[in-house]
Amino acid sequence: MNWKGVFPAVTTKFHPDGSLDMDLFFKNLDFQLESGVHGIILGGTLGESSVLSQEEKITLTRETVKHINGKVPVILNIAEGATQDAVFWAKKAEELGASGLMILPPMRYAADAREVVTYFKAVANSTSLPMMIYNNPVDYKTLVTVDMFAELAECPNIQAIKESTRDISNVTRMINRFGDRFQILCGVDTLAMEELLMGAVGWVAGLVCAFPKETVAIYNLVQEGKIEEAREIYRWFLPLLELDIHPKLVQYIKLAEHHCGIGSEYVRAPRLTLIGEERERIEKIILDGIKNRPLL
Fold this sequence. Notes:
This protein is of the alpha/beta class.
């Protein structure tokens, strides 16, 4: 498993009646691949996993693996409250042909450090798939500390970290402690270039769903040491990237996909599509971004 590069946390596409729109989903996937992304992540927050049925998650995983056909890794996100459910999805992902897992700490219950470590180890020991720990204490209220990662290093298939603590120095902190034992991927769009410069090797991205070429260009330019060129694109991108750090990121990013012609704004309740002043404000950000899109 190569964790380096741009990994879109893709949205799930729906018809107006709420059913899965697989044709539109595949259209977006194809555009991601054509733009040079390095992997696909299913079932994250952007994927509206919490409102998908078990059958729909299985369908999305199976059909994505089939459609991608080995071109890039397909990663399934696990966000469960019960250890047995997390283990179920780890085994199911392996059965369906996924390449790896991204996993959050236990949902809903505020587990302590011992419980979180035990949870992650139980899932890791249930599968041969490589795993990425999603460390996001801001949104999910559980911090996976450096000392906790020292215990998790015992599991060889825990290989990567989606770094979403909002603390850029945590990249350096982890590298100082573990060297290259864990691959670090930035999980916050507005900090991506900064964390890539500090040693992160990948970007789990959100606005990539609508703007994959620009996202990949920033990543590639940083890798090539062309910092001025990357910074110019990043400065254009920032107002759009800030749509990723809002509770309505799903609605905002889906609206951006709609305006870019590679998605729709349909969401599942309790989410609702945007209206009124909020819609006008977000559309202006999106349309201004499209109008002023940099030449790559």
